[in-house]
Design brief:
Helices cover 23% and strands 27% of the residues. With 188 residues, it is of the alpha/beta class.
Length: 188
């Protein structure tokens, strides 16, 4: 069995210290680019991103970036054509990836819906409509206590925009939902 060796110096054969290499790496990054650090999950599984297969990566990027406010963090092109894009949600670290589907491949995602939470759901939906985007179901209170609106991305992937507030990790708040759905006059 190989015995561990102790390292006496952080200087490698090249003569550069690790801290000097890190500083050079930071300086080489373009301004505004955040460094990506893996989350400390103590060895537990973490969610990285959702991959969405699309017929046109540039069209999908415009939808998620320009309409929903995602930030483009990676754009990969093959022979000048976008084939992959990674985008970060405007209000957190959640990311999605758009991947070019094959020309004969289906991009149908039956049974999968993307959920994006936004505090001022009604205002957000109004702004989408002002940009000419069609919302299939305007915001309304659902039986489980969350306000939802539904729409589809350009490839038909179903999206739910919602606001759950303090109930975001609890979908079984039926009493609260019934209260919120009752007309104001009958609550008194």
């Amino acid at each position: 069995m190989k015995q561990p060796t102790s390292r006496k110096s952080s200087v490698k054969k090249s003569g550069h210290s690790r801290s000097a290499k890190r500083a050079a790496s930071r300086q080489a990054k373009p301004p505004g680019v955040k460094s990506s650090v893996a989350p400390n999950a103590d060895g537990k599984l973490t969610f990285n991103h959702a991959m969405i297969y699309v017929k046109d990566v540039e069209r999908g990027t415009r939808f998620y970036r320009d309409l929903l406010g995602f930030k483009l963090i990676e754009d990969f092109r093959h022979e000048g054509t976008a084939v992959y894009a990674r985008l970060r949600a405007p209000g957190g670290d959640g990311t999605i990836a758009l991947h070019q589907a094959g020309s004969d491949a289906s991009v149908s995602s039956d049974g999968v819906r993307l959920y994006f939470e936004v505090p001022d759901l009604d205002d957000f939906c109004r702004k989408l409509q002002q940009k000419g985007f069609y919302i299939t179901k305007m915001p309304c209170m659902m039986p489980w206590g969350w306000r939802h609106a539904y729409l589809n991305d350009p490839d038909g992937h179903e999206i739910s925009l919602y606001w759950a507030g303090a109930n975001r990790m609890k979908k079984t708040v039926m009493k609260t939902a019934r209260e919120a759905a009752r007309p104001r006059a009958s609550r008194a």
